[in-house]
Amino acid sequence: MFGFIYVKQLQxxxxxVGGIAKLFKKKTKLKxxxxxxxxGSSSGAPRQDEVDQILDKISKTGYDNLxxxxxxxxxxxxxxxEKTKITFY
Length: 89
Prior knowledge:
By secondary structure, the chain is mainly alpha-helical.
């Protein structure tokens, strides 16, 4: 009887087993934690919009056309990225 009902439901486009199969599907438990190892120097880190503007300028005119201040900003941003640790567990 169940087989007959199942076939008729499949013919109408409804899969009754699909909903049951979702109950037994393994769910991943991925957690992401980001910590800043050097919390004291976070105020010296450049803002993301500053870095984005400099990167846009590099794509248009090249790295050699950056001012010393812009190069220093990129350098500080790269150092800030090294201090941020991302852990997956």
